[in-house]
Amino acid sequence: MTDKLTASVRADCAAAADPGALQALAGRHILITGGTGFVGTWLTEMVAHLNDEHSLGMRLSLLGPHAADFHSRAPHLAGRKDIDLIERDVRDLDSLPTGVTHVIHAAGTPDNRMHASDPLRTMSVISAGTSAVLRASVDSPDLQKFLFVSSGLVYGPQPLDLPGISEKYVGGPECDSIASVYPEAKRYAEVECAAWRGQTKLPLVTARPFAFIGPYQGLDKPWAVNNFLRDALLGGPIRIMGCADTVRSYMYPSDMAFWLLRILADGVPGVAYNVGSPEAVTLKDLADRIAGAFDEPPAVACRGGANPRPSRFVPDVDRCRDTLGLRVTVPLGDAIVRTLEWHRAAGTARA
Amino acid sequence: MAPREGKLKVAILGSGNIGSDLLSKVLRSDLLECTLFIGRNLASRGIARAAAMGVPVSDGSVEAIENDPDVCDLVFDATSALSHIRHAEVLERLGKTVIDMTPSNLGRMCIPAVNLQECLEYPNVNMVTCGGQATIPIAHVIGAVHGEAEYIEVVSQIASRSAGPATRVNLDEYIETTERGIIAFSGCRRSKAILNLNPAQPPVDMQATVYARVDEPDLERLTAAVDEMVEKVGVYVPGYELIVPPTVENGRIAVMVRVRGRGDYLPSYAGNLDIINCAAVAVAEGHARMTGSVQGEGAR
Amino acid sequence: MKELLVTDITLRDGNHAVAHQLTEHQLSVYAEAAEAAGMPIVEVGHGNGIGASSMQVGESLLSDADMLRVVRGKLKKSRMSIHVIPGFATINKDLRPAIEAGVDVIRVASHCTEADITERHITFAREQGKEVYGVLMMSHMASKEVLLEEARKMEQYGAEGVVLMDSAGAYLPKDVRDKISLLAEELNIPVGFHAHNNMGMAVANSLTAAESGAYIVDGASRGFGAGAGNAQLEALIAVLERYGYSTGIDLYGALDAGDVAQRELVEVVPSATSTSIVSGMAGVFSAFSKPVERISKEYGVDPRDVFFELGRRGIVAGQEDIILEVAQQLSEEAAKK
Question: How far C122 CA sits from the closest chain A CA (Å)?
Fold first, then answer.
């Protein structure tokens, strides 16, 4: 990590944050499971900004199975006095660190290659991991709020004629498909959260993240936008696999980090909140816009299957907007430009 | 449970499949006593099983040994290569002998039938790979009989069901470590390792073929030497069997062995996992004999 | 007109037919002919792919590096492809150098039920910005439901298409229709088919695949490939043209390439010999025919018995060592009688 990269991420956080809206978290101690992953790293960047520039005085404990790696990946965060690292499998957590007042439970990789190769581990980390964190949280006298980071995939396939999925939508993944391992485990974990909340009155809120684009997201990740960015950085062509008419939306992660903290601070227990961008884009349009961000735009090639089936994955985020005052501060066009700049500076894609 | 008189005190780090199977083998040994079985979660299946068998358990990682250094003399590390790097440092400081089951490549490579005595001098030994344990004894004999082999190749078949996600994602490391082992133990100039997963039902046994190209094959001496070696491996791997004796075909020497698992904790078709655990226990028993903690009746 | 992507595998599967002894001259003249014909993808290498030269499956005359260098020098518009089997080829020893040698297309293969072993190789090739396909070998050995599940894994890993290989030449047209149409229906990426001719069905099966929704079909000039050979490329192109498919390949160019193959590469034009018919019926990898015939002769056993016993045991591609064990076993049993 160069100073330039950390400064740009810090500037992103400053632009997305409204410190006044997070007063409920001032001086609090937050445990983040999955704390060294993509979501955890951005939450940590945001908290570091809030502490340094707005004196919110939060403490963070980051729990992850390979937390030690965080020192080499993000030394500017790992070395901070207001952050400590706990190297542990979330399933083995038996009690919260002393003084923890808030939990953000974000463990469980969304990388679908891992879901395909080790579905049993994927399910176990989510189900047994959630049980372990909930039990430890209920036992902790200091705990004030618990945020479960679920997934927008729990809704199952989105009807093509539904512009955005709202939190009230009821659907679900097919239960006999390997592709359902992650979303179905998240659904189960949401229900378990509801059960603990009902039985113990644990103040628990849920966030359902959709898709993101931005720094710290590896270009090797198997999602369309990452592949497009990589193809483009390598000189193209950008290859669209699957159906070019598929519709997605992408939120920039500084917005995601602020939204999650805001939901933790003032989200109503028992309520779920979609986290994502409502700005819909087809894969074809996304590829063209990425190509258009280059002086010499790379070609865009479509490589669909024999039976193209468009899908749609776009949230309705009215609940976050209307009840928590949240808005998307980085439109897709800016998100693309900033992400490309970051990867160019970081030299992530090997030419 | 206090250690019985005269046995070497061993701890097992890692309560997964390998650690649990090692425990079964240690419990059967006349020379070893498991004084601590260490996992990460007291509620896990491996720990619960060990506790039910009266074995002292801990969820304290390597620190459990650090906090009670007299608890054991020798440690099997059945965690991961990444964790082993950290454990090795602590255990070296504590002066513990370490048998590393992970592909960390830190310690001295050990194939008991070939270099057990030498390995007893090293504080950290590495058990190479399952395919290495099955084929390197044969490769070693081919090298010894012929002075030098130009090229040795080993091909292993394992049951698809015995290959978990970690094995599948680490095929490259398996191949490269086995190839290094073949060269180190046979003195051949080049080596190659191949792994085939076979999904047939019922699951197939582990089988391995060793091919070699040498200047002048001496089948008579090789056959005698291979028979002797198979017997030597068979002492600590009961399911090890020669199925095709040294044969010259199409300008190459071929020898085939089969490994049936003992079915201790792991199913019997997982001969690939059984053999590496059997080999590790043989090293620990070597230490038990050497330290003289065992006299008379215990030693076989 | 419906488009198809044809992969010319003459210089890879054909290597099986000559015990992996293709020379620099042979690679060079054929690659030139393939380029002239406008073959979109030209696959080259040892019959079992890069990193496979071995006593187990045969040592190749040329190193991977030499083969890739020669063919790279002849291809301009055609893309150069390799076949990669994890368990034989590793990323550091084989795949990385091949990419440095200028490979455009990487086809990562596993036995049809073992797609998880392709994750790292597919990911690595994608990270290098290469065109990557997944290949399920010996696909007659799994049901269409299992094939779909394994193909989906490859799709998740980042494969741009999945090719079903009929490595044993065991498919009949109805099998092709069943399996290809399900995958074409369910996957979001294109599906391909790679035929062998053990029972004389290779071209017909390839056509059935195209008619069932396959986008990729493999062929070899004069059928030059393992055992009874592959779908004969020039005949396949003619048939596809009659059916109104567009392949971008020049028919005369393909016919010329076939003539070059016959003149320069092919020792015996592959045909469905009695052992290769039995190999297809037994469902054993076509490339086993040479070692099975050699070893059966040595042990005085009927190669057809060897094939049926290998089939009964469910032996997969790459397990050539078991031939020796089976031949010994059959010869011992015969001696007892």
Answer: 11
